[in-house]
Amino acid sequence: MTLDTPIIRGSTEITEVTLRKPVSGELRGVSLTDLLQMDVLALRKVLPRITTPTLTDHDIGLMDPADLVQMATEVAGFLLPKSAKVDASLAA
């Protein structure tokens, strides 16, 4: 995904971040309900585990809220079963 506002890390500017679907072990210590509700603290634990380039907790704390919501939406989508995604696309 392309960030609305780049993340500045030293002399590096991060403009794009790839999220991959987490495996169960990468969700340790986080409530799935919190992730589905886009809880910022839960996202700050999980996003460093599933982003390329790897975002740090500090990066996420400074992130534009619009970018965080976009990532949170993608993470929540990873947690839904295929049937729920099909139902949602039919309703649209």
UniProtKB/TrEMBL annotation:
- A Pfam family that the UniProt record links to this protein: Phage_TAC_7
Q: Which InterPro entries match?
A: Phage_tail_E/E
Identify the domain of life.
Bacteria
The protein's name? Phage tail assembly protein
Species per Swiss-Prot/TrEMBL record:
Pseudomonas kribbensis
